[in-house]
Specification:
Strand content: under 5%
Oligomer: single chain
Shape: elongated
Number of helices: 2
């Protein structure tokens, strides 16, 4: 069933588009200030910034998921 009033969804879509343009503008500005346009082609600097900002989060989550607590005591081995 399609809702009749989509004003809320449309306003969120416009807000998301405005945020995306603002982030892209800020990344372009920072990339230009550091003079990195000569080293990385234009479409890839968004991926580079996204990777640098999300990599620490991914690493911390993977470390937290891999930590295993050894609550069980080892069972004694009896020799006959």
């Amino acid at each position: 069933m399609i809702p009749v009033n989509l004003k809320g969804i449309e306003s969120w879509g416009r807000w998301l588009a405005a945020q995306k343009l603002g982030i892209m503008r800020d990344v372009d500005y920072a990339w230009g200030q550091y003079g990195l346009y000569n080293y990385v082609p234009a479409p890839y600097h968004y991926w580079a910034v996204g990777g640098v900002t999300t990599l620490p989060f991914i690493l911390v989550c993977s470390l937290l998921c891999c930590i295993v607590e050894d609550d069980d005591e080892p069972k004694p081995q009896y020799n006959n």
